[in-house]
Queue: 2 jobs
Job 1
Amino acid sequence: MDKVYSLIWQVPFGEFALKLDFLGLVFLAAIAVLVVCAGIYGIGYMLPYKEKKPLGFHFFFYFILAIALVLIVLANNVILFLGAWEAMTLSVYFLILFHDEKPSTRKAGFLYLIAGHCGTFLLFLMFFLMAQTAGSMNFDVMSRASFPPALAGLIFLLALPGFGVKAGFLPVHIWLPHAHPAAPSQVSALLSGVAIKTGIYGICRILWILGVVPDWCGYVLLIIGVVSGVMGVLYALGQHELKRLLAYHSIENIGIIAIGLGLGLLGRSHNLPFIAALGFGGALLHVINHALFKGLLFLGAGTVIQRTHTGEMDQLGGLAKVMPLTSVLFLIGALSICGLPLFNGFISEFFIYFGLFQGLMGFPLNGVIACGLGILALALMGALALACFTKVFGTVFLGEPRSAHVPAKTASGTWREETSPWMLLPMIALAGLCSWIGLAPLTASRLAFSGGEYLMRLPAGSVDFAKVFVPLAFVISLAFVFIALALALILIRRFLLGPLPMPVGGTWACGYSKVGPRSQYTSASFVGPIMDAFKYVLLFRKHGGQVTGEFPGKTHVSTAVHDASEETVFSPFFTFLMGLSKKFDENRIRYTQIYLMYIFVFLIFLLVWKIR
Amino acid sequence: MVLSILLHWLVVVFLAPFFLGVISRVKAFFAGRKGPSVFQPYFDLARLFQKKCVYSRTATWVFHLGPVVVVSGVLVLSLMVPLGALKAPVVFSGDILLLAYLLALSRFFMIASAMDTGSSFEGMGASREAFFSCLSELALFMNFVTLALLTRSISLTKMIGADVPMLWNVLGPALILIVASLFIVLLAENCRIPVDDPETHLELTMIHEVMILDYSGVDFGYMLYGAAMKLFVLSSILVPIIVPVKTGLMALDMLFFLGGMLGIALVIGAVESCMARLRLNRVGNLLLIAFALAFFGFVVTLWRF
């Protein structure tokens, strides 16, 4: 099925070689859908900035990003791949800097750039190691070479942080929670939906090229997935800014994908191709699903932020009355990301769970423990994600408005038009796709499974998926039974209540007279018990809240969850590096002329050496 | 197929409130009272379905959807659970996953409906429910992992031994731990003491009871019915493990099944009467005990490898 295209390119070792295979097709599907939807959304989102900011720059880099993304998944040559990778990194940097008047945005962009380039440095090392062993820079030729197990392990260990920085694996994810809130919403959607997935694509491509990796690689990937997933969702629970919360959820879903990939590697190392296919296929389907529902959620968050001019959940509330369509679409995204039945998140998690359970029953002891850990982690992640998204949906869209940020009704008593159609239509399209994959998953599943089979270097159709497609058919039929039952119950209720509208009153407040919107649960109070339970794992800081003195006055409390990687690992490390470089800086020569003299002398030396 | 689905739903719908009545009768016996009739829940539900609803000004369409999703969810998941001699109409590998996630779907809508009222009471219940469900899901999945290892299957019917009675003298230790763990999860999911008090609506004690505080009339009837059916279905998952009798005669098997269900109702009533509700920060500990019991069951099972 591989379609190959090649051009002569005047770059040393470079070759403009493109190849479309099933693995690339999975990622290309996600890229295509999300680039189009986010682009159309961007037109509506950028309209308020029309005279005030240079939109041309923004859309220029958007198109460069789109081209770079497509080239990354089609590239068949190391130089082309790395060139497209750099193009993607730089264009995302410029896209994030749309609001560059804010210092936090500039810091976020710079952090992203540094993190991206640290990863790219490791990628350079890794690719040159592979090209050295295989003797060529072409992926196809490299895949036919054989790598000794120690070297394969080393390449895998370089690929993990190299691609993992972009993907958002836990210890090296620190740029994500800063970059996503800083960027405009359609850029966040694209970043979280597809740019992160290029990291996963890179790992998949390396696994394809290597062919056989040592057994421990599967365990490593599974552990990374478990840690990223659980910690990601715990960090997300502690956030009260909408887009930062969604950014941490991306880390959780990358963890789920890593669990699937780890399961696939385990299945391969124990020679059970069905389990491996389930693991890889489930992970690839989750790539598509995550792009869809995370894109939908970010676009919905963008609509909320554009209307209310704030992303703080504790300032919002009751938006379902102001923006009913957005609330329905956001709910579909929330149900999908929690992996609940009727939507696409359940389907990919079903495949990964199914594979883990098959592994539980089929692997020897080590594999049993690994699969058990994977199942428990997935269960915990699902429940915590449910807590998180009920918090988000409940705090932002339901209840009473908590501040003046929420728009009020106009003088005539109606709501202003919800939002521009440019922004609504892509969200409706994405929600429709989520429901389609949730209720008719065969097409998407077959695509993902063929990608998985290609990754395992098996010919298409060699693994028999009937064992999982038959249960899937039951799941879908039960989903339709559920919908039919729900409709029947609504009709029964309508019949019992009669045609007249029901009386409306205030919410029962148990007799308290001074109940207002401020007494509602906020995002911090909703997750209070969970944060308390996990306080030894999370850096949960609480400032203030103490009332002092005999006649206590007003006091102030603030709570925050600090990112452990950032605070305990990277910040001190960068501070140390800055201290070192300051020391060198003190002793530097301050005259440019002396540096020019050095260059001149070195040139003379080179000329003399070469002419001899 | 359609006939067996309808028969299954008929049994669940008609028998579920009876067990609520049995539990309150047992509690009355412990308290030295005569107690309400065992059929009282039926009368309550009939009364509720004849009443109109009052809706809050703050509520949106999510509030209207809540009860419907809860009842549909529990009815669909009852299709995968065998009831004594009545085989589950829908059996497939991996149905435990759909079961757990249908429970999660109804939980999502219950929490969202609670937040929809804009009251801090419902928010309290919602926040506690969100937390405890994390721990009870952990315990539930740990049990599923152990049962999958024991029975080499991930279909509920085969896992709880509904097809072949699991021999207690061979798999005894692991099964005792699983039964204890699943019983605690049952108490937690269904709003029973020591996790939650089904009788009162005080903010100190409530988790599930407060999330439905603002419902009235038909909606409240749906919620109560959903809770009763959930208790019935989750208890009927426990019965085949405790009473692994398979005579082959349909009437005798149904009798054993009903006997097992009445036994569980008796135990729940006894637990409710003899214990007080735990302080909220201890409820998490209780659910972690359930997880630990299941984990030890897992270790015991692995030992046999």
Note: The two ends of chain B are 39 Å apart (CA to CA).
Job 2
Amino acid sequence: MRGALTLRTLALAAALAPAAGAQDTSELEGLLDQDVVSAASKVPEAASTAPAMSVSISADEIREHGIRTIDEAINFLAIGMQIEKLYFNGEIGARGVLLSRDAGAHVLLLVDGHAVNEAWGATAYFDRGTGVPMEMIDHIELIIGPGSVLYGSNAMLGVVNIVTKRSKDFSAAHVIVESELPINLRAAVGYGRNFRLFGRDGEIALELDHFEQKGPTIDFPTYEAEPDAVTGQPRLYSPEQPPGIWGGPGDDTATIRGSSGYLRLRLDGLEVGLRGVHYRRAYPTDSGNFDDPDSFVRDRWLSGDIKYSATLSEVLQGSIRVYADHYDYRQDWGSYAAADCLPEQMSGCMWRLIGRANWAGVEPQLSIDWLGNHSLVTLLGVDGRIKNVGSNVNFYSYVDGVSPGPIGAFEKDEQSLGAYLQNTYWPASFLGLNLGARLDVDSRFGRALSPRAAATLLPWVGSTLKLIYAEAFRAPTAWEVYYIDPRSWVAGGSDMEPEGVRSVELSLEQRFGSQRVFAGVFESWWEDLVLVQDLSEDELASAIEREDILPGTPTASQPRNVSEIESYGVNAGYYGALASGAMRYGVSVTHAVTRISGPDGSSDRVPVAAPTTGNARISYSLPGFWPTLALAGRYVSRRPTDDYTPELPLFVGAQVELRAALSGKLPIDGLSYRFSANYASRHLGPYGVGSTYPADGSPRPLIPVDPFRIGIGLQYDLFP
Amino acid sequence: MRGRRLRQSLGRWLSGVGLALLVICSSLSVGAEDVAVPISLQMNLLLKVASYDKNLKQRAGDRVRVAVVVRSNDPDSGRSAAQALKALAETEDVEGLPLDRISMTYTDAAGLARFTHEGNVSILYVTPGFSETEIDAMARALDGVSVLSAGALAKYTPLGMVLGFDLAGGKPKLIVNLGRAKRQNVELSSSVLKLVRVIE
């Protein structure tokens, strides 16, 4: 047995080692393995010298590891970022900070440089709702740390830039079918080609996809819940359970339906991007009725972006970008409880929230290459935007289906202007400096300044030392500023300020041939974070006097900038390739110590955010028609649940998730396949579920995690 | 009412911007050339590939001469050439041979071939700004001339450059035109060719 093992080991070593007499190409492999990113400073540059911690995930890695969504790509293949699954929705965090239920508002999501976070609630999804077909993605750039210096609001935890494929890498017609058996099915068609028009080079790439998921059925523990606060009687959660009992089999819990399309057109210096998304999903057990098929959340996006870039002289390059977006949101949330509805709706109601935003802008940008050799470059730009945001809430009675009228309705016209300046200077071949700042002026919140200073030192061959200071902000959402409910809610109003973060980090990267090791330390300080606060008796009286709140209202709440976070930690990674790039591997770990404090000054852990996260992966591409084998794993340490309080410190244990994948070509020309299997060691996640707390005072049950899933996919490329 | 006013205002505003965009586009002859891989990285790759060329030392003699081919009055070409020359200045030698870097303003293909041959140029780097016809003419003129020719744009390689640079998956890729390599006496080992995309 030992002899067989030794023989196998020798055979593997022989396969990986360069053949006798072959040249050592490890240095060339190392150069070819460098990530090139453009989101950190809006110009293509090596990630190692970019003025931010930058990671790139390639289309090859996405395919080889059976990755189906952005959150999977980040969790298995990136460093520093963590995405927790709330049912099948991803909540994104980074470096020990994750602000649950923020709808992705603390990370700026870009698709080919176009900001996705919408103008009403700053929503951006990193799951099935991202709305960019995966086959079109060339690579995903992650800029970790504050990044408002060039982009403005939302880039507090970082920037995720999805870069789509050029037509040369997407040429042909494509038909894709894939499934995670037996719960979902995705079908897509795409097309890409180059062309000549008016003597100029052009290219087009587009893909449309549709996704349906029904299931799995999740068995929630049943418990006796607190009685209805209005009637004092046990409330009905589901027709399938007696009154007062929450839980049971949830067969409508994981229902998702989504369609998206993306088109990218280039003609010489002109680029056009069009994106449409329709994303509807169940959200039935967060509160309200249990497993109610009529409760759902729906988002729709329609975005257009036109950019023209030109070289004006050897010193000047310019571009102008015009964009327009539409977004609307609908949430239907049913409850049989009188306590959740208007006073006259004793048999329950359907609560419906509608939100919408339309915005359009223009962004001229100028780059001045003062010395003509890229060693001293100034980038300046202005992003002017007009916005229209609106929202309303209706309570439709379960008895007659009628709402007495909208509550908290608002419609606002807003304007914003962001101006940015960035100077990149390489005074010597071993030293680079990047200084920049952006000033945002917005009719919703006033102004915010986001500076960044970065120094890059190349002290010896293959090494990069970076020191970075950066600030970023998140504008208060329209909901936080304008929404009013005279029975319970006071608008944040003009007192709302942007949330802010400052960060400093130091990192060292060393390359040796095709191997790369990275280590860094970071610290960040967050201030003016928005929390919903109960009004004091005096504040409530004054709100009633101002007629913001109806007389006799017992309690009311208001969003306020009252919270702070301090976080510090380390991250490290090792990446490499062997056998002429056929074998690739990487491992990363991030550990952070994070404390959040409230208005009373007390500090504690951040719910859901894991102190330690990490991942490891390896893939091996067998020659010819043999498949690529890939294995990836991620680790998330023990972390507080979202019901965590200092008085009730609830935690969920560490999670280990494994993903094995097999991909390759089939004997039919143009036909390829992917097969994957996913296993989660812990079957519970860090979110409490249940409409109200159990009557016996015990904690809410934790959200079940899908423990094992097999995925298959086929792609057929025609007319290459 | 206010919504209609906003839509009208938005329509006027976007129309104005669109008109301005059209004027700008039509007033400029061409848009910016799409150099996907940063020039400094291209130079690192170029010199590294050159070091694997089995005929480099025989071709170069005692010095490796790299000529950066510039198209006059083309701002993209001029910018890229300046960046390339700066990046080359940061390298002292290739395979132990000292490195000379020169700029060559393109006039015609025959002149380029003569310059390459008479100037003992080992590596030619062609900047953006050249038409397909010009690249094709360069390739024909360089037929039989011992030189590693490389183009800043990926599209130059199938047109006749030996080596090209592309970006896919956020990583640089090399493209080698093997037919041109043979005709220009460039010989790369199989271990290098494993790492590149080969076109015939």
Note: Residues 43 and 87 of chain B are 6 Å apart (CA to CA).
